[in-house]
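Quick one:
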Amino acid sequence: MPITEFLVRNATYFKNDVALVEINPEVKGGTRTIWKEYSLIESDRSGAFRKQITWGEFDIRANRTANLLLTRGIKKGDKVAILLMNCIEWLPIYFGILKTGAVVVPLNFRYDTAEIVHCLSLADVDALIFGPEFIGRVEQALTQTPRVKNCFYVGEDCPSFADPYEKLITYCSSQAPSIYITDDDDGAIYFSSGTTGFPKAILHAHRSLVHACRVEQNHHGQTKDDVFLCIPPLYHTGAKMHWFGSLLVGGKAVILRGVSPDWILRTVSEERCTIVWLLVPWAQDILDAIDSGRVRLTDYELSQWRLMHIGAQPVPPTLIKRWKGIFPHHDYDTNYGLSESIGPGCVHLGVENIRKVGAIGVPGYGWEAKIVNDRRETIDSGVGELAVRGDGVMKCYYNDPKATDEVLDADGWLYTGDMAERDDDGFIYLVDRKKDVIISGGENLYPVQIEDFLRANDAIKDVAVIGLPDKRLGEIAAAIIEVKEGASLTEAEVNEYCMNLPRYKRPRKVIFAKVPRNPTGKIEKPLLRRMYNSAFLVAQQNEIFVED
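Output:
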């Protein structure tokens, strides 16, 4: 059964129930994209833009999107990309693409033009649906991706190189297209990256998407009455696959465009949210705001909030201890996953196992897990590579059989590249990562990209970028810079030079030192981590370093 059948079922049985709400504090009393049909609501609620859509309207919007694409020649197996900020249009477009039998390709809204070009080309994308934040990047990217024949713009004042999505779908049928889709048909391509920083295209079948729905609902017990607060970006498997639990039961979800503690708590209060998925920095900010008095819990109605769960990065046990001290009635869970395993849940802690905070948990619903040595032989003790198997494992890295063979074996095991060990109770703990990736605030940073950028500076002889521990973000990027002999360079000058990088990629710490390399010329990053991690932790605890 394809995942689109869940939407059809909800539209049949819960037609007039609210499916999605968007709240955007950045738009005060104004409009963004106006849907002129059905019972959509726009209002200035508590100073924020608000809009909602029922399950019946959701399905109709998806059908209209599908029929628009079909009239433009999109067919089963074609690839259609989405490049949108979180908004109420996002998920109906996603499901509209799926209803054509095409493969939906979500793009990271932080991608620069070069990354957009790379992803469109790698995934063989045939059409693109994008929003107003990306006009400049998309216009440049289209000059380098001739395969993309159809480009649709979601917003007002459509640029000349695109077609107006909202206007066009009003002329399209609201009836579902007759496209036969099976569990094994290709459904979605998500992007990940290795240490080179260039994304790989991760291909999933509909079977994977359906499995994600069932895993999420099994882990967190969603019912029709639950309300899920979605804050992370929908292009990522994490946010969407957690929402899939709401899809499975026909529950309401709220998309919040904002991460301030006040807006999170206000939205939980006003929308009666019961389940909230947070990243570590957001949970930390909420606790700090409460401790400092910047927000007062008595200003909000939070008694219905039953579950807070965290994923995307290691979770400090001290954070959960603080959280439970303030919210003792909350269940807590953490989920481990990767895009290759359709996001969160292949390993999860479980709300009943809070005593094991610090572990990523046990194999999730419908999943198997094992730890292997360098020969990929299962080991019962000690540190090894974590491998997982289940219906949520990707089909392949699209257009990259070599990379696929490196992580998938003939028996369906996915080798994650994460080093882990089990305790005597069978709970899995992450120890280190094989891949040279920094996870900062739930976002992956790829050191090679930053290093290549810095090496273009005439004063820099060599550079290594590593992750240093951070109590709020999990890790931050630190640049160890070796200055050329006779040249001079200050931290302020490095920071100024890095203004040309996206903000999230800029190093937050600059260290001037020699960059050690081994006899084969590779940077000795384990040595650098040993040199600086402990010192940095001590310095943070003593508040020597100040975060921006």
